[in-house]
Amino acid sequence: MPKKAADTWSYETTVANVEAIIADLESGSLPLAAVLSQFEQAVQALQQCETYLQEKQQQVDLLIETLAE
């Protein structure tokens, strides 16, 4: 996730966008080129979400470690 986009990026918004893409894909009404494009966008968004969650997990682990000391 690029730092400049971090200010406007939202986990919740990204998940909602992925859900909308999935609904579009499941509708079966998109042409193949659009399906591939939408799928690529969903994968990239999910990768951003995974990175975000990993970063937050590291922060939580550090806080727990600090409390345990």
TrEMBL record:
Gene behind the chain: xseB
Name the UniProt record assigns to this protein: Exodeoxyribonuclease 7 small subunit
Function of the protein: Bidirectionally degrades single-stranded DNA into large acid-insoluble oligonucleotides, which are then degraded further into small acid-soluble oligonucleotides.
Catalysed transformations (reactions): Exonucleolytic cleavage in either 5'- to 3'- or 3'- to 5'-direction to yield nucleoside 5'-phosphates
PANTHER family xrefs: EXODEOXYRIBONUCLEASE 7 SMALL SUBUNIT
Subunit structure: Heterooligomer composed of large and small subunits.
Similarity comment: Belongs to the XseB family.
Entry-linked InterPro entries: Exonuc_VII_S, Exonuc_VII_ssu_sf
GO terms under cellular component: cytosol; exodeoxyribonuclease VII complex
Location(s) in or outside the cell: Cytoplasm
Record keywords, A-Z: Cytoplasm, Exonuclease, Hydrolase, Nuclease
Origin species: Phormidium tenue NIES-30
EC numbers: 3.1.11.6
Gene Ontology biological process terms in this record: DNA catabolic process
GO molecular function per UniProt: exodeoxyribonuclease VII activity
